Each structure stands twice: as structure tokens, then as C-alpha cells.
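Contributing new records

If you add data, match the layout below exactly. Sequence lines come first and carry their own label; structure lines follow with theirs. Keep one chain per record. Anything else will be rejected by the validation script.
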Amino acid sequence: MDEVSYMVRGRTESECARELDRLCHLLGARPTMRPSDRVGPGWVARAVRTVHGGPLLEPGPQG
């Protein structure tokens, strides 16, 4: 397997997005799932760090 997966959980969408950005910056990861409240309590986002790199998602609207 050539990728590592990370999950971020926050109480609010903005908290989750902020921590996803922080994780990606610190670990060289790329978002694979934007913050969502559809997968359980709170907000969840995911990212991966791959051997090949490159963006996996297009930037979303700022809000």
C-alpha cells in the first residue's frame, strides 16, 4: 500500500476544516473528503499522504 490515511473530527465545520488544513500542511497530505456531518456525530474530514503526491480534490468554496 502506498498511502496513509488520516481522519479529522471537529465539533463544527470550521473547526474540522481548520484542522484538516493544519494536518495537510504539517504532514504533506491531500484532502480526500471535505468536512461532512453525515458520517456520525460532529464533523469529519479525511486526507491521505501518497507516494506520488498531487491534489486529489479541487479547492472548495471559501466560507
